[in-house]
Amino acid sequence: REEAQDAINDYTERKVALELWRKWQAQIASAEIADQTFLPEIQKYIVKLKWISCPLIKDDREFFELVKNNLLEGLELDRLAEIVVDRLSFQFGFNLEETLRGLILAIRENTQQIGSNSIMVKNETRAVRPVVRNWLIDFLRNTSSGNPAEVEEANYLFSNPNAKALAEPDRQTLGKVLAFYDTFRSMARELAQTARAQMLAELPPEETTPPPGAPPQFYTPPTEPTAPPAASASPPTAPQPAPPLPPVSTPRADTYREPIAEEDLAGTQKPPVKPTPRIEGNIVDLKNINE
Q: How far apart are CA 56 and CA 279, in angstroms?
């Protein structure tokens, strides 16, 4: 455990962290750990060691599962965003946009609980469980486009009724979730804008061919005299401009409509009423039982 804690404290010991959690996971799978009382503690260490070593995890699916199931444990580390950025940088731009989309989706699908009371998500009529995905839905529906992410996060944490009802440690955890989500959502937007700018820059310019021996930079193609247009019954059709590239737009936050999962709805359902059993056969009149 001391070796594991050292690897967690020094987040650069990624290879050590990777070897440790894989060894412990194999021991748990083969029931080599005799004292089961230490099992919950070891599993907590395994999760944190996975986060430390996540830049070395090449399988995106394994990485997304870690985000989806154990984001809150990762946020207990001081440099989680930096660790994840390191993992993304190891891709050297290859498939980066798809990885960012998967990362954002994994955060939205996280069902770890923050707080103990159900919350009322904006535009919903029933309270829901206080899990990460529902907190994000409520946050996105309550933010307005145009404000910096830090301003929106602070406004939500200290003005939203759901967030105001949280205990201080839970509010801090929620703040870390929102900041982590906004970090990689902004990165995905910047990547899309950069890709669009590159696409515009790569459009071929209109070219003219100079005569032999003429310097291209000083050549101006001669203009040929044109005859006046003949009279026509209908006016000439103006040339149509080329269709513009689709803009990179961000939907208004108050139109965010990700559905609430059915299992997240708070409250218990009443059991169905059992039908009254049907009595068949002869009916005995109890009044005349002694006659």
A: 70
Q: What would the DSSP string read from start to end of the chain?
A: -HHHHHHHHSTT-HHHHHHHHHHHHHHHHTT----GGGHHHHHHHHHHHHHHTGGG---HHHHHHHHHHHHHHHTTSTTHHHHHHHHHHTTTTTTHHHHHHHHHHHHHT---B-SSS-B--TT-SS-B--BHHHHHHHHHHH--TTS-HHHHHHHHHHHSHHHHTS-HHHHHHHHHHHHHHHHHHHHHHHHHHHHHHHHHHTSPPP---PPTTS-GGG--PPPPP-PPPPP-SSPPPPPPPPPPPPP-----GGG--PPPPGGGB-S-PPPPPPPPPPP-SPPP-GGGTT-
pLDDT in tens, 169-192: 999 999 999 999 999 999 988 887
> What digits encode the pLDDT tens for the residues 219-233?
555 566 566 655 555
Residue with tokens 């709805």: 265
Q: CA–CA separation, 107 vs 228, rounded Å?
A: 66
Residue 139's Cβ-side half-sphere holds a number of Cα atoms within 13 Å equal to 27
Total count of residues recorded for the chain: 291
